[in-house]
Specification:
Low-confidence stretches: 99-104
Oligomer: single chain
Number of domains: 1
Largest sheet: 2 strands, antiparallel
Bound molecules: zinc ion
Structural class: mainly beta
Number of strands: 4
Amino acid sequence: MSTPIPDPAQRWRCGGCGNLTRFDVRRTRRTTEFWHFDLAGGHAVEETEVEAETVESVTCRWCGRDDAVEVVARADVGADVAADVAAGVDAEHPGRPGTAAAQP
Ligand SMILES: [Zn+2]
């Protein structure tokens, strides 16, 4: 199962633990890059054109699941995070293992 990359109005959320911020993304990309060398031989990639891209897996950094990451609307999460902040919950780690919220 491949997880779609979120568009600008979306983000990822792990349905297993609630993680919103940390994911390992395995993807294959075919690109054309502009490599700009300096006179010493070091280089910087100044332009990257992505010609093809396949996301193979998106794995939650917290619980390790790669079958539970879902695309959600940022606006929905924003409301949840605002509510969590109001309730004193760590907004960046709403369901982090070890907190009460992570218990099933
Ligand atoms: Zn997770």
